[in-house]
Protein backbone atom coordinates (compact mmCIF):
# COMPACT_ATOMS: atom_id res chain seq x y z
CA UNK A 1 0.00 0.00 0.00
CA UNK A 2 1.32 3.41 -0.94
CA UNK A 3 1.27 6.23 1.56
CA UNK A 4 -2.35 7.39 1.22
CA UNK A 5 -4.97 8.30 3.77
CA UNK A 6 -7.69 5.60 3.75
CA UNK A 7 -10.26 8.15 4.85
CA UNK A 8 -9.81 11.21 2.60
CA UNK A 9 -7.33 10.02 -0.02
CA UNK A 10 -4.65 12.55 0.90
CA UNK A 11 -1.32 11.29 -0.40
CA UNK A 12 0.78 14.38 0.14
CA UNK A 13 1.04 15.56 3.72
CA UNK A 14 1.28 13.49 6.84
CA UNK A 15 2.02 14.05 10.50
CA UNK A 16 4.64 11.76 11.90
CA UNK A 17 4.81 11.60 15.68
CA UNK A 18 7.96 10.20 17.17
CA UNK A 19 8.88 9.49 20.74
CA UNK A 20 12.32 10.14 22.08
CA UNK A 21 13.70 9.38 25.50
CA UNK A 22 16.41 11.43 27.14
CA UNK A 23 18.34 10.77 30.30
CA UNK A 24 18.85 14.04 32.14
CA UNK A 25 21.29 14.20 35.02
CA UNK A 26 20.79 16.66 37.82
CA UNK A 27 23.00 17.38 40.81
CA UNK A 28 25.80 19.26 39.06
CA UNK A 29 25.97 22.97 38.33
CA UNK A 30 23.75 22.49 35.33
CA UNK A 31 21.38 19.86 34.10
CA UNK A 32 23.17 17.51 31.81
CA UNK A 33 22.00 15.28 29.02
CA UNK A 34 23.79 12.01 29.48
CA UNK A 35 22.00 9.72 27.10
CA UNK A 36 19.80 9.97 24.13
CA UNK A 37 18.08 7.07 22.46
CA UNK A 38 17.06 7.31 18.83
CA UNK A 39 13.41 8.30 18.43
CA UNK A 40 10.79 5.64 17.93
CA UNK A 41 7.91 5.91 15.52
CA UNK A 42 4.78 6.58 17.50
CA UNK A 43 1.99 7.54 15.13
CA UNK A 44 1.46 8.48 11.54
CA UNK A 45 -1.54 10.68 10.92
CA UNK A 46 -3.11 12.25 7.87
CA UNK A 47 -2.42 15.99 7.93
CA UNK A 48 -5.83 16.72 6.45
CA UNK A 49 -8.24 14.69 8.55
CA UNK A 50 -6.11 13.27 11.39
CA UNK A 51 -6.90 9.68 10.53
CA UNK A 52 -4.25 7.33 11.82
CA UNK A 53 -2.46 5.36 9.13
CA UNK A 54 -1.30 1.84 9.72
CA UNK A 55 2.43 2.40 9.44
CA UNK A 56 3.11 -1.31 9.29
CA UNK A 57 1.02 -1.78 6.17
CA UNK A 58 2.50 0.92 3.94
CA UNK A 59 4.89 0.14 1.13
CA UNK A 60 8.11 -1.20 2.67
CA UNK A 61 10.29 1.09 0.55
CA UNK A 62 8.36 4.16 1.70
CA UNK A 63 8.39 2.91 5.24
CA UNK A 64 12.16 2.55 5.16
CA UNK A 65 12.52 5.99 3.63
CA UNK A 66 10.30 7.53 6.29
CA UNK A 67 12.26 5.93 9.13
CA UNK A 68 15.48 7.17 7.60
CA UNK A 69 14.06 10.66 7.13
CA UNK A 70 12.95 10.86 10.75
CA UNK A 71 16.13 9.30 12.12
CA UNK A 72 14.08 6.60 13.77
CA UNK A 73 16.20 3.74 15.02
ZN1 LIG B 1 -7.12 12.01 5.55
Description:
The chain has 73 residues and is α+β, with helices and mostly antiparallel strands. It has one domain (14-68). 15% of the residues lie in helices and 30% in strands. It has one helix and four strands, in the order ββββα. The protein has one helix at 60-70, and strands at residues 14-19, 22-25, 32-36, 40-46. The chain has a two-stranded antiparallel sheet. Strands 2-3 form a two-stranded antiparallel sheet. A hairpin with a 6-residue loop joins strand 2 and strand 3 (32-36). The longest helix has 11 residues, at 60-70. The chain is elongated and about 50 Å long. The two termini are 22 Å apart. 5% of the residues are buried. Bound molecules: zinc ion. Zinc ion (ZN) is lined by residues 5, 7-8, 10, 46, 48-49, 51.
Largest sheet: 2 strands, antiparallel
User: Spatial order of the strands in the main sheet?
Assistant: 1-4
Radius of gyration over C-alpha positions, nearest whole angstrom: 16 Å
The unique ligands bound to this protein are: zinc ion
**End-to-end span in angstroms?**
22 Å
Secondary structure class reads alpha+beta
Q: In percent, how helical is the residue content?
A: 10-25%
State mean pLDDT (0 to 100 scale).
93
Care to count the β-strands? 4
The low-confidence parts are none
- Number of contiguous helices: 1
What's the quaternary structure here? single chain
